[in-house]
Amino acid sequence: MIFCVTPARVTDLRTLANEKNLYACKIACLFDSYGLSYPFARFWLQYDGTEPVTAIAAYYGDYTVQATAKTDVAELTEFLQMTGFSSVLSEREIFSDSYSGIVMEKAPPHQNVKAESNPDWKEVYRLLQSCQSDTFEVPAYEDFLLDMSHKIRHGTALCVGVHEKDKLAATAMTIAQSKHCAVIGAVATKPAFRHSGYGGQCVKALCSLLHDRSIFIMRDEGENEHFYQSLGFENKGKFYIKRGKNHDTVLSD
Cα(94)–Cα(156) distance, rounded to whole angstroms? Predict the structure, then answer.
């Protein structure tokens, strides 16, 4: 059975969200950032008897699923179909027509590299806009600013940047961050400054700020593998994303 998370079920949610994987990290980050007080952040648990076996979190219409070996996939699929989701991210292929990519992980220790922490958000946003492509989209500025600022205040996000000639040349940020792990995303270098090592410097600096956490990234199959391997990341499996009819642009992964 699937139940909405109430204060009485928070311990069960944290039991699953404390695991060291990308999906638990995203769910823990959302809960630590927004808790149960915001209507756009919602949480559910699927139980096998009294045992919590699946955690589900939604930020607006974007869902993250942390499945286990005991997940009732048929029940989960029916539940998700009824929600009118924009997207569903999961380690398991819940929908047969899902898009798939690669998860990579870097375990501690992390090299100590310096970069500017939390650079000016307008500069960051303009840089991200300059790097938009078919696989890298940027949300509306106000949505981006409100979410990242809120998470940084709650210790669930970080952003670093490198300047060259008084211009922001590259940036990287955590799109999710919990006590045990983090997910890095939005690694971007302005076209004029590419192939200068700035993107790698940002990733290394971000990893050093994350201390003893395990760090994950999501990448498209066939893209950026050598870049992340050179920074100490290893392939750890696949992720699956199902896009819904109401899919909006989100800063991703």
Answer: 28
Rounded to a whole number of angstroms, the distance between the first and last alpha carbons of the chain is 30
Half-sphere exposure of residue 223: CA atoms within 13 angstroms, side-chain side:
9
pLDDT averaged over 10-residue windows placed end to end, the chain, 253 residues: 98 95 97 96 97 97 96 97 95 94 96 92 95 85 94 95 93 95 95 93 96 95 94 96 68 43
> Is cis: bond before 109, omega within 30 of 0?
yes
Sign of CA dihedral 82, 87, 90, 92: positive
Distance CA 188, CA 186 (A): 6
pTM attached to this predicted model: 0.92
- In the chain, which residue ranges form alpha helices assigned H by DSSP? 10-17, 22-34, 73-83, 121-130, 141-153, 198-209, 225-230
CA distance 75 to 232: 38
Distance CA 194, CA 248 (A): 29
Is residue 199 within 8 Å of 169, Cβ to Cβ? no
Contacts for 44-51: CB closer than 8 Å, 24+ residues apart: 44/2, 44/3, 44/4, 44/5, 44/79, 45/2, 45/3, 45/5, 45/9, 45/12, 45/13, 45/16, 46/1, 46/2, 46/3, 46/71, 46/72, 46/75, 46/76, 46/79, 47/1, 47/2, 47/3, 48/72
Distances (CA, A) of 194 to 144, 171, 199: 24, 12, 8
Q: Which two tokens stand for residue 40?
A: 């756009």
Per-position DSSP letters for 56-88, written without gaps between them: EEEETTEEEEE--TT--HHHHHHHHHHHT-SEE
